[in-house]
Specification:
The complex is a heterodimer of chains A (about 325) and B (about 280). The two termini of chain A are about 15 Å apart. Chain A is globular and about 80 Å long. The longest helix of chain A has about 40 residues, at about 195-230. Helix content of chain A is about 75%, strand content about 0%. Chain A is an all-alpha fold. Chain B is mostly helical and about 280 residues long. Helices cover about 70% and strands about 0% of the residues of chain B. Chain B has helices spanning about 20-35, 35-40, 70-110, 110-125, 130-140, 145-170, 175-180, 185-220, 235-240, 250-275. In chain B, α6 (about 145-170) packs antiparallel against α8 and α7 packs across α8 (about 185-220). Chain B is elongated and about 75 Å long. The chains are: A mainly alpha (about 325), B mainly alpha (about 280). Chains A and B meet through α1, α6, α7, α9 and α11 of A and α4, α5, α8, α9 and α10 of B.
Chain lengths: ~325, ~280
Amino acid sequence: MRFLGFLLRRIVGIAAVMIGVSVITFAISHVIPADPAVAALGDHATDEQIAAFRSEYRLDRPLVEQYVTYAEGILHGDLGRSIRTRRAVIDDLVDSFPATLELSFTALLVSMLVGVPAGVWSAIYRGRPPDFVVRLLALAGGSIPVFWLGLIVIGLGYYQLGWFPGGGRIDAFVAPPPPRTGLYVIDSILAGDLNALRSSLLHLVLPALTLGYFSTAVITRMTRSSMLEVLGQDYMRTARAKGLRERVIVLRHALRNALIPTVTIIGLTFGSLLSGAVLTETIFSWPGLGRYATASAVSLDFPAVLGVTLLAAIVYPLANLVVDLAYYWLDPRIQRG
Amino acid sequence: MAFRPTRVRARAPILGEPLNVLAIAVIVVFAACAVFAPLIAPFDPLVQTLGSRLAPPSPEHWLGTDQLGRDILSRLVYGARISLVIGVVVVALAGIFGTFIGLVAGYAGGLVDEGLMRLTEVFLAFPPLILAMAIAGALGPSLQNAIIAIAAVTWAVYARLARGQILALRRREYVEAARSIGASPMRIIARHLLPNAIAPLLVQASFDMGAAIIAAAGLSFIGFGAQPPTPEWGVMISEGRNFISTEPWLSLFPGLAILFAVGAFNLLGDGLRDVLDPRLRRAG
């Protein structure tokens, strides 16, 4: 019952935020530009097209009425028509979302697989060279521009070593797996297509490493600091006093408790992953939302950019809700509180 | 036994930690480049010398030249001016506006607080770069608009921080005392609440200097910030993109400049956090 109340409160909160989000995207599309019709249709639109657009979207009506029309459109999945692709923005978003999801999840996976052990290692060796190296790398991770890292990684991994492809989701001569989830790796496994699996995995390496570096740094720092806090607790001394092996103490007693704040951080880094994906996908010609947003932005395709903005603002609070639910499940103290 | 007051250890000075000194030194170097760019830069950052296009680093051009024969070191030095100005202006705009909103929300409470905090949450729901891109797109691509866009996605954190501080401080005795002798809300906020709430805001400002520099470079990289031929670091990396396999120095050095500048502000942020607000201290 308490769980349902918690869930309900969060969902109402998210709905309120969503209304706010739609007001802001409305303001960006209708209020900021000198002429929203020109902004939506592009500079090359004819006077007739502009007039038709104005009457269709009631741009000659009061702002409140315009907002209601706009919000109704969103609720019906109408995010306008892309000037560049000439398709409905919602269709473009649906097509490019799986690529971004695959890249972001892989990046997050890399971050957890690297960040958590690095944080633990750093905490155990506090003040000694391994700690110093890990902290330096983590500092760099928070300070490095992702688009520059992408270029460097391509320069090394593709041009110099030739180990990994420099862009795209799959080799040009390999047929993409039949779409079931839209995630090439999963679809290749489902189709039993080893060739496509190998190619899509290889294509994921460089962009996932690039995109994942920032979140790896965040997770490393968080794991390190919460490990240090836990390692100083009384029950750790008790565990040592009763003669448990160091390995058991670190993994079973310390890490399990230290991971709780790390889970929260994972939700928070999701937003930065989406931001990072814009630039990473552009560098790696990764056909996801980020590249779609950049390509649209460059060709001043305003409805498309706003569509991505709106979608991103919906995904982010939802990701945080999922994390909150995980947190609720992981930490019984929250359930009691 | 006579009462002896516990001796409170003085706050560790920011310069006591070698890493803080390093961070400040790097920031000073970049600031010096920004202020004295015309004196430091060996060449005009915009002058094209097509005869020495794509020259590798040499005694004449320490960091090489770009595809139009412009000296990369000179462009980097002038780029420091742009990046630091971006950082300062973004942090000033976002910090002042966000802090004001947070102070008002925290002090007023009730419906005002509720409304302002929901507004803050809405802004925090957007991934910053994507919202900044949309705003910069609506305003038109330029450096000035990129600054406005980044400030628009940055202020919410200050609002939240300032509000949290005010909620913790507003019931303190000295605030009650000020109120009881008839001090106006503005005076209480300005004289009593803000000075005591400033520590975490300063820490955030240091981190945001770095974040603003990266965000502006990112916007410029995709064409939404500074425009060529401006010697902005993001523009420089973007221009060097096509030469990454053959003349990597075009993109390498501006990227390193961003890394060092942002790293220094992040390091300083860590240091400030430790010195100014031990409650927030993390082992990271």
